[in-house]
Design goal:
The protein contains nine helices and ten strands. The protein has about 240 residues and is α/β, with parallel strands linked by helices. It has a domain of about 160 residues: P-loop containing nucleotide triphosphate hydrolases (Rossmann fold, 3-Layer(aba) Sandwich), CATH 3.40.50. Strands 6-7-8-3-9-10 form a six-stranded mixed sheet, with helices on both faces. β9 and β10 form a beta hairpin. Bound molecules: adenosine-5'-triphosphate and magnesium ion.
Amino acid sequence: MTNPILELRDVSAEYGPFRALFGVSLTIEPGASLALLGANGAGKTTVARVASGLVSASSGSVFVDGVDMTTKRTYEFAQAGLAHAPEGRSVFATFTVEENLVLSFRRALGRRGVPAAVEEAYALFPRLGERRRQIAGTLSGGEQRMLSLARVLVEKPRLLIADELSLGLAPIVVDEVYETLSSIRGTGTALLIVEQHVHHALELCDEVALLDHGTISWRGPSAEATEAVVNHLFDSGDR
Ligand SMILES: Nc1ncnc2c1ncn2[C@@H]1O[C@H](COP(=O)(O)OP(=O)(O)OP(=O)(O)O)[C@@H](O)[C@H]1O
Ligand SMILES: [Mg+2]
């Protein structure tokens, strides 16, 4: 029997005196895909941060491949094959597109792995190839998001944790990003997707978990989620 790639067991998380998660349990099997949905402030980003080691659980445990990672550092989560594509833009604004790619691939893959990885990034997002000499800070919001996504995808994570990838993107770019995620999924990368675009998330992911005020209120197959999603978002919009 294989272990889940990620397991949160009864995890709570706090920001100072504020408690954001209350006993969250969830598992993601290797190659599986889970959409995490919920209202603003429900705790989705906090789950993504705990899952990638950016925020420590105040109680409960986090396992990666069956190994207890609860007290491990962020880089150890990355070494275990977990990649976190955070909310917002995360590029080096004063460097070119290509310099951004080279810097992150050199760190992750070593110098010799860089050229092939850069070409792969351009194959995933041709627009980045067209703009390889452009200063990253002058890219459009969507192009910057592609750049930060390319940086994590080429490293072939075993689990990609993506938080609001489509935020602020034009629908056509969102479609492009989701096509890329779908092909990444096809290569066996597991996904934890936090997304406001519910229908994209449902289409991409096999399973859905709903988060409500820091607790999981529903979990099930995407095909059964629509009614639960609507009810949930309707009930908890007043926070
Ligand atoms: N650094 C922080 N310090 C204090 N409170 C925080 C911090 N980060 C998040 N919170 C609080 O924790 C709760 C959960 O926040 P979180 O960002 O996980 O929600 P979310 O579901 O991702 O919301 P959104 O859909 O708006 O992105 C919120 O009430 C938020 O105000
Ligand atoms: Mg969030």
